[in-house]
Amino acid sequence: MQGDIYRPLGLDIIAKPARRPVLTGSRALALASVAIICGGSLTTALVQPQFRVASVETPAKAPLAVPAQTQLAVQKGPALPTVQRATAPLAAAPQDAFVASGTDLAASYTVADPAAMRQSPSVAHLPEPDLTENSQYGPLPVRAADGRRPLDVYSMPSSGALGTRIAIVVGGLGISQTGTQNAIRSLPDAVTLAFSPTGNSLGRWMQDARRGGHELLLQAPLEPVGYPDVSPSPNTLTAADAAAGHFNDLYASLARMTNYVGVMNYMGAKLTADRAAMNGLLGEIGRRGLLYLDDGSSSRSLAKDSATLDGVPIAVSDILLDGSQEESDIRQQLDTLERVARARGTAIGTASAFDVSVATIAAWINEARGRGIEIVPISALAYDPERQ
Predict the structure, then answer these.
(1) DSSP string computed for 305-338
(2) In a domain, 61, yes or no
(3) Residues sharing a CB contact under 8 Å with residue 341, sequence separation 6 or more, in sequence order
(4) Strands (E), the chain
(5) Which among 320, 317, 319, 224 is positioned nearest to 269, based on CA atoms?
(6) What is the pTM of this model?
């Protein structure tokens, strides 16, 4: 035992002789193959054959034959058209907005921002001579030779913000002197005022309203159900005349005042339900550069469909605000108008120039603006194909 402890470790292990690998036939063949492959690769790397690089020449293309007239244009280089946006009313310079120069064919085009065509507030009460047509009835609204419309020139601005917008139209002005004066002075300038052609001193009231910043409409008497027993005016336009293109009664109404952006119906349940009559009426209104406002009093009115098909600017009232002459009822209708506007983004309400209506609307507008409602002129909410 003692001797085993002190014996050096490993000295008792007898080393076995190492076994030499046996070279079999298969192993020899494999080694020979590897040697041949390596030798061939080494020879190829050291001694590379000289390959010929063929040069490919691309034949030069013959120059294209260009006619002499075209060569001159290429050498000279036509000047690109220059565009300048109009910043002043086009009446001053109707053809300066877009001028193409530098070529033999001179061309000029009118490109204008609608805001540039709008009357300056300082002259908003003055009729634009280019937008009036003399007739036996008086001055009629008409498109200008440069394409401007009364709708463009006599419209009033709005912010254009993407928010809840409401247009309120108060009609029946011009009939009562005190009522007309009260409406012009009490209602905010964003409220649109509609005048009756049977009123008095319409030129003076028009000027006062325009100085106050209001946008204007003319109420045209149209044939109601039960006509002539029920007659809105001596110059009532009948469905038969409108369908036949006879507009003498309409002209007698349109010529009573100027500086309005469009026409609003006064009564007219029979005419507005007649497709041929509405096509004739709206065609005449659109030709003169006006919009049409349907007061929404008749559920059978074809105004919206006819105007859309004919490309006439159109607006339709959503709610009559003062069917009842009670302040609480008018306020309730105004609240309903606000709910419609918040649901759809926009809404249009109509009323008459009764003292209670004017006072209630004016007070409500001040409150509504505090709730983020914007009151806009009617032209801001009309569908206008020429501006889409």
Answers:
(1) HHHHHHT--EEE--EETTSS--HHHHHHHHHHHH
(2) no
(3) 164, 165, 166, 347, 373
(4) 82-83, 98-100, 107-109, 132-133, 140-141, 165-173, 192-195, 216-222, 262-267, 291-294, 314-316, 319-320, 346-352, 374-375
(5) 224
(6) 0.73
Pair 196, 171: CB distance under 8 Å: yes
Statement to judge: residues 138 and 91 lie in one domain: no
Q: Which of 275, 221, 215 is nearest to 251 (CA)?
A: 221
Q: Are residues 224 and 344 in the same domain?
A: yes
Confirm if 342 and 164 have CB atoms less than 8 A apart. Answer: yes
254 contacts 263 by C-beta, under 8 angstroms:
yes
Residue 100 pLDDT level (bands cut at 50, 70, 90): very low
E strand or H helix at 111: none
Flag whether 245 is in a domain: yes
**Domain shared by 109 and 166, yes or no:** no
The helix/strand/coil state of 374 is: strand
Structural contact between residues 254 and 140, judged by C-beta atoms closer than 8 angstroms:
yes
Mean pLDDT (the chain) is 82
Between CA 371 and CA 75 the distance in angstroms is 65
Q: What angle do CA 154, 220, 192 make, to 5 degrees?
A: 40
At 214, list the tokens: 């209001």
Q: Which pairs from 74-80 meet CB under 8 Å and 24+ separation?
A: 78/102, 78/103, 79/103
Ramachandran angles phi, psi of 282, nearest 5°: -70, -30
Torsion sign over Cα 37, 41, 42, 44? positive
What angle (nearest 5°) sits at the alpha carbon of residue 322, between those of residues 376 and 266? 75
**Residue 246 tokens, joined:** 């006879």
Domain-embedded: residue 370: yes
What type of residue is 352?
S
Coil, helix or strand at residue 49: coil
Tell me the pLDDT tens digit for each residue of 328-370: 999 999 999 999 999 999 999 999 999 999 999 999 999 999 9
Rg (CA), the chain: 43
Domain end call among 71, 93, 116? 116
**Of the candidates 147, 150, 146, 86, the residue with the CA atom closest to the CA atom of residue 115:** 86
Tell me the torsion sign for CA atoms 379, 236, 283, 108: negative
